[in-house]
């Protein structure tokens, strides 16, 4: 029988092992530990493209300040998507 501290430590070790090597845990425990597969950030690229089109439309209408702000927003979104894509590819 384990005391509270030992149970807490064992649970912490189990969580760490599941996070570090879920395949091993699935083979040894027979459990079904689902490992989420990362997906490329395609939605962020689509959002960046939509925002860029909005910036072009605002620029065509003549609202230059709003167009510049929206273009900056689109650039930030595209950079975030590129960063997440880089992290996705390095896994």
UniProtKB/TrEMBL annotation:
Organism's domain of life? Bacteria
A Pfam family reported for this protein in Swiss-Prot or TrEMBL:
DUF3040
- What protein name does the entry list? DUF3040 family protein
User: What is the source species?
Assistant: Actinoplanes teichomyceticus
């Amino acid at each position: 029988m384990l005391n509270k501290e030992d149970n807490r430590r064992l649970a912490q070790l189990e969580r760490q092992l599941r996070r570090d090597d879920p395949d091993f845990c699935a083979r040894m425990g027979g459990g079904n530990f689902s490992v989420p597969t990362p997906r490329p950030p395609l939605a962020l690229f689509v959002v960046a493209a939509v925002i860029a089109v909005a910036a072009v439309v605002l620029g065509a209408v003549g609202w230059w300040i709003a167009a510049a702000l929206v273009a900056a927003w689109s650039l930030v979104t595209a950079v975030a998507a590129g960063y997440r894509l880089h992290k996705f590819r390095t896994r």
